[in-house]
Amino acid sequence: MTSTVTTNRSTASTASTASARTLPATVATPATRAVPAAAIDTPAAAIDTPAAITAPAPTTDAPATDAPATPAPDAPRAHAPGEPLIVAQGLERRYGSGRTSHLAVAGIDLTITRGQLFALLGTNGAGKTSTLEVLEGLARPTGGSARVFGHDPYRERRHVRPRQGLMLQTGGFPPDLTAAEALTMWTSTLTAPRPVTAVLADVDLADKARTRISSLSGGELRRLDLACAIAGDPELLFLDEPTTGLDPESRARAWELIRGLKERGTTIVLTTHHLEEAESLADELAIMHRGRIVRRGAVEEVVAGHPATIRAALGAPTVPDLPALRGSSTLDRRGRLEITTEHLNDDLLALLTWAREHGVELTGLDARAASLESVFLGIAGSDPTGSDPAAPADTTAPPASTAVNATTTPAA
């Protein structure tokens, strides 16, 4: 019988087959998701899972080929270019039943290749976490299918779990443990753990090894969660909001670590509310809205075809007719001008030339190319079906041309 480890900062009981190692019954490290006990393959002991879940020791009935030998931490992983690692087809996840049910994931198709860093973005309630939980093997899909390493991640989790690491949104450890003790406890469950000192150094916690959990800051706790996720050197890494609570310096270091993992060939699935994080790190991204994927591609592909904007306040109460523009423009009674255009450079030059010739002062001139943020905000305000009327769900247009981003006030 399988019970559930519910990670809500309370100790949960598990009824699962014993693994090769036994965790202390007093260990409690919660997260925000309900994790099936069988998905963790830990012994029947009172535990909570940390926010990072990485490769547990394999069960005795698992064939030796299920968990290939882990390469040296700095050795690149060998894989065929474009080889699919995660494949979801018509994936659905529904909560409840009957008229009160809610379809959180509405039949999405998704392929993530080996060695790729894939960012999954979305508005609140878009279905990101529900999708991740299915791909991680923590939840059963209502419809469609998911395959990870060629296996169903829920039904065949023993083929998948030893090869992946999870970092959930929040987590914690017993407050009386030190950082080194907490990580040591966690690595005792792994098949091929890396040295604790090396992992702590990777996440800039070497100087906090003897510091108790209760004395760590929120950002340091988050880095400890990340340490648990990478301690088993997983082939596949799920990072759910990995830099939440980190200061800018720590966030930059986390990015550097994530890039290093990717360069080794680790496949990474990332969710984040920091759009600049996705822009900086991701090879490819998808934006979810109301259970559907409404954009997918490289950042350049996702923003291609979305208009740029030019804004300025005109200094004079009355001005000559505006120049001929390739985009559309609006001018309100206060003299505030806004131009929406797919030809930013041409229209910006036309506006500046017009202002100089007519002696019109442009105050607070702001010219912005289309960005991931503007696309995201456009989707968030799109129609309730989840589609963005500006473009099809999968954008395959060529990358947008380099455009001017400037804020200036030209002389009249």
Automatic annotation (TrEMBL):
Pfam families: ABC_tran. Residues 86-315 form the ABC transporter domain. Residues 54-69, 383-403 have a biased composition (Low complexity). It comes from the Bacteria. SUPFAM superfamilies: P-loop containing nucleoside triphosphate hydrolases (SSF52540). GO terms for biological process: response to antibiotic. Gene3D superfamilies: P-loop containing nucleotide triphosphate hydrolases. Keywords: Antibiotic resistance, ATP-binding, Nucleotide-binding, Transport. It is found in: Cell membrane. GO terms for cellular component: plasma membrane. PROSITE patterns: ABC_TRANSPORTER_1, ABC_TRANSPORTER_2. InterPro entries: AAA+_ATPase, ABC_transporter-like_ATP-bd, ABC_transporter-like_CS, ABC_transporter_ATP-binding, P-loop_NTPase. GO terms for molecular function: ATP binding; ATP hydrolysis activity. SMART domains: AAA. Its main location: membrane. Residues 1-24, 54-81, 383-412 are annotated as: Disordered. CDD domains: ABC_DR_subfamily_A. It is a peripheral membrane protein. PANTHER family: ABC TRANSPORTER ATP-BINDING PROTEIN (PTHR42711). This is Multidrug ABC transporter ATPase. It comes from Brachybacterium muris UCD-AY4.
